[in-house]
């Protein structure tokens, strides 16, 4: 399987582990879902480290906790027609590629990518995540290899 280079704005399918699941003692996510890479860096040891934000159908209890994905963007990424939000209060960190990447349903089994968020929308997501993280540290789960 040929994997793409991870980069900010890429939307991948991933077995996301929610903070509440982690706190309950789980080390594996219960559902594969689209996730947006918000950051990708090369560590000192040469590993590619990524930070992903989950995409969910559940509306946030607080509107400041997530950003709704516009319908046109959802269509371009071939996501379903239900409303979806990118959660900015928590994230998973892992070394790329990691064991939790999953194939996109209905695509070739080697396809883990839905597509890329439009630059302006991604910049909005990134900036809101960074601003929130400065004021109230995001809950990050460091995933094992």
Rg measurement, Å: 14 Å
Question: What best-fitting shape do the alpha-carbon axes yield?
Answer: globular
Percent helix: 10-25%
Q: List low-pLDDT spans.
A: none
Terminal CA distance reads 18 Å
Helix and strand composition category: alpha+beta
Task: Give the count of helical stretches.
Answer: 3
Strand content: 25-35%
Biggest beta sheet attributes? 8 strands, mixed
Q: How much is the average pLDDT? A: 95
Helix and strand sequence: EHEEEHEEEHE
Strand element count:
8
Describe the 3D structure.
- With 145 residues, the protein is an alpha+beta fold.
- The chain contains three helices and eight strands.
- Strands 1, 2, 3, 4, 5, 6, 7 and 8 form an eight-stranded mixed β-sheet that branches.
- Strand 2 (31-42) and strand 3 form a beta hairpin.
- The mean pLDDT is 95.
What does the secondary structure layout of this molecule look like, with pairings?
Layout: E1 10-16, H1 19-23, E2 31-42, E3 48-56, E4 66-68, H2 71-76, E5 85-87, E6 90-95, E7 113-116, H3 119-135, E8 139-142
Parallel strand pairs: 6-8
Antiparallel strand pairs: 1-2, 1-7, 2-3, 3-5, 3-6, 4-5
Main features:
single chain, 8-stranded mixed sheet, 145 residues
């Amino acid at each position: 399987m040929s994997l793409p280079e991870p980069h900010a704005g890429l939307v991948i399918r991933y077995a996301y582990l929610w903070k509440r699941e982690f706190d309950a003692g789980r080390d594996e996510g219960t559902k594969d879902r689209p996730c947006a890479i918000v950051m990708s860096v090369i560590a000192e040891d040469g590993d590619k480290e990524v930070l992903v934000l989950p995409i969910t159908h559940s509306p946030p209890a607080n509107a400041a906790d997530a950003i709704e994905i516009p319908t046109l963007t959802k269509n371009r990424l071939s996501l379903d027609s239900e409303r979806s939000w990118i959660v900015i209060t928590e994230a998973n960190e892992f070394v790329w590629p990691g064991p939790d990447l999953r194939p996109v349903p209905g695509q070739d089994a080697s396809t883990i990518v839905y597509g890329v968020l439009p630059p302006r929308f991604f910049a909005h997501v990134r900036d809101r995540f960074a601003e929130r993280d400065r004021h109230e540290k995001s809950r990050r789960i460091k995933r094992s290899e």
